Amino acid sequence: MAKIDKARFWTGVLYPENMREDWKEVIGDTLQYPYAYCQHSQDKDSKSEHRKDHVHLIVAFPNTTTYKHALNVMDLLSAEGKKAINKCEAVVGIRNVYDYLIHDTEDCRKKGKEQYDPSERITGNNFDIGAYEQLGTAEKNEMFLEMGQAIREHGFTNYMDFYEFVVDTYEDMNYIEVMRCYSGHFERMTRGNYQRWEQGQRGLRPSQAQHHASTTKTTPDCCPACGSIDIKKSGKTLANTQRWACKDCGKKFV
Predict the structure, then answer these.
(1) Do 126 and 10 have their domain in common?
(2) Which of these, 6, 14, 17, 16, lies nearest to 65 by C-alpha position?
(3) Which listed residue, 27, 66, 128, 221, has the most CB atoms within 10 A of its CB?
(4) What is the pLDDT of residues 213-224, one digit of tens each?
(5) What's the CATH number where 75 sits?
(6) Which portions of the sequence form the region Disordered (predicted)?
(7) Rounded to an integer, what distance in angstroms lies between the CA atom of residue 141 and that of residue 129?
(8) Threshold 0.85, pTM exceeds
(9) 28 within 8 A of 125, measured Cβ to Cβ
């Protein structure tokens, strides 16, 4: 899976010794975005020794943002001349990361991690976990446009290639959901790319192609797959339509 470069929710770990002394008092005005955090001071390693204190933080942006921007926002809590955070991660499932703040997940319980009381999970700037679990219309529209742009940029000419691209590129399952809801639209876009390619093979402009389609001859000009003019008849379909075959690439078409 490819690394997620843009997301709406980001999480990171900060170390208090490198944070502003008044970070708890100014975190809301400093971040200026909804946030949730929990300070871990009771964690132990595999040898039951005390782990260095740290703060797990989630920042919720109004729209998808880049890794660099998310990291810069969290870094605002660093003390002058110090670095409280080195990296952050895109949130795939907001509920799971929200629960992880207090180690209230199945994996944490299996590993025997310290369970923190829900009261130790601090939220601010109108952080709303319930609202974030529901994908908003604006986010759906943004994902819709992003995937449509991918079809244009990569020139996908069939839906299967586009589907594999989405699955391999996006870890956020919301992209899969948007693709499923608008599968007909994306399929028409990939078909449109194929038709453009086909028109290019014939050397026709769109207006010419429309005229060409209205005056279709009984014999095709060329193979739609490779453009070869070396074609032959290859039986008929159940609807009694002539089927053709390309002698060069073997492609059969109607």
Answers:
(1) yes
(2) 6
(3) 27
(4) 554 456 777 777
(5) 3.40.1310.30
(6) 197-219
(7) 21
(8) no
(9) yes
